Amino acid sequence: MRSGHPWIYRADITSSEAAPGDLVSVASERGRPLGWALWSSASKISLRLVSSDGAPDEATFWRERLARAIAYRDSLAIDATAYRLVHGESDGLPGLIVDRYGEHLVIQTLSQGMDRRLPDLVGWLVELSRPLGIVARNDLKVRRLEGLDESVAVVFGEVPETVVVREGPIQYEVDLRRGQKTGLFLDQRENHEAAARYGRGRALDAFTYLGGFALRLAAVCESVIALDSSATAVAAARGHVTRNGLANVEVREANAFDELRELEIARERFDTIVLDPPAFARNKASLERAVAGYKEINLRALKLLTVGGHLVTCSCSYHVDEALFLAIIESAAADARATVALVEKRMQARDHPVLVGVPETHYLKCGPQAVRTKP
């Protein structure tokens, strides 16, 4: 807490008198005031601190935090109609996610405190952002840790089955009720743009989902092969290829691990390769297996990469920190007998800010642009 981390765990609580989701005063064992926090009666994270000053006036406190978060996104001049408005702890609103998709918003309340205040939050968002509709995507398993039910519901206005949004020059048709996360991987938006600065020649985009990297690479590469194991994602990605009039992108339904191996056996070569897999390490128990998975796909990719080619390699696993991720790439490069120079390090987009002192808010590593400099 002294270093700026807003979480206090159940094991550190000596006594409590509060109802689920209460805004409570926090004191040391000796009675010294420490601040104000949202209380959870179920989670191991019992307290999420929101203020170190006097008692917040809830009639204005949360609205002011929302207004500040929205004003920050306005200041970024984001070249897209889909982006994050509120990023939980990083905006002083722990357990709250709000994403904008054109004229519609998606809200997620992932803690007892925020879930209890959902009606008020919706009201303030309507006032501040003037959306046509808001859908609550509260279908994440993490809510179970807070003793909360999983559900998807329109909580304001009307939300169509799909909405069309723009990311730079690319258009997407997004399902706000059933799409992964809140519909798109908004945290990769700026990395899509960065990849296009390095892309050239023949490109391969593994784990493409809705086509994010592949669609941006199409403008600078001769051809792009995009892979995903989900038939639903492949169909959507193909739809985006057509919607954006791209003739040089082929989307294949395939297991990326298997396909990378088959491409290596066939002695295929690519000038640009993107690896953007789902989180392999969702908890510490799965870390060893995750490291092996990241090692394998990076090794296969480096063997497929031409001399002077670019590898854009990503990890969204919080438990695989930046140092470990770079060590995995180093190990893969050694096994591939390739010398790799890291020319740029990236993370999640600026609308997903990292809170200093809270490593959990830095989850996305994008070590692109690892360059193979010799056979």
Please explain how this structure is put together.
The protein has 375 residues and is an alpha/beta fold. The protein contains nine helices and 19 strands. Strands 12, 13, 14, 15, 16, 17, 18 and 19 form an eight-stranded mixed beta sheet that branches. Strand 6 and strand 7 form a beta hairpin.
Summarize the structure in short.
By secondary structure, the chain is α/β, with parallel strands linked by helices.
Shape: globular
- Poorly predicted ranges (pLDDT <50, ≥5 residues)? none
How far from one another are the termini? 49 Å
What fraction of residues sit in β-strands? Answer: 25-35%
Offer a few descriptive terms:
alpha/beta, eight-stranded mixed sheet, five-stranded mixed sheet
Write the layout of secondary structure elements.
Elements: E1 7-9, E2 23-27, E3 33-39, E4 45-51, H1 61-75, E5 82-87, E6 96-101, E7 104-109, H2 112-116, H3 118-129, E8 133-138, E9 151-157, E10 163-167, E11 170-174, H4 189-198, E12 202-206, H5 212-217, E13 223-228, H6 231-243, E14 249-253, H7 256-265, E15 270-275, H8 287-304, E16 305-315, H9 322-336, E17 340-342, E18 365-366, E19 370-372
Helix pairs in contact: 1-3, 7-8, 8-9
